[in-house]
Amino acid sequence: MRRKITNETWEQIKTAYAAGIGLREIARKMEIPEGSVLAHAKRHGWT
Hints:
The longest helix is centred in the first third of the chain and has 12 residues, at 7-18. The termini are far apart. Helices cover 64% and strands 0% of the residues. The protein has helices at residues 7-18, 23-30, 34-43. The chain has one domain. It is mainly α.
């Protein structure tokens, strides 16, 4: 069963990304599929 990634978690990911940590590294550390993180970042324009 898939688990829902909460808005709070997404905010933590966005903060870490803004601090200069790579999206793939964040995904591995938080045990979230890389594809989910990369797709979310692209969809929300985190560049």
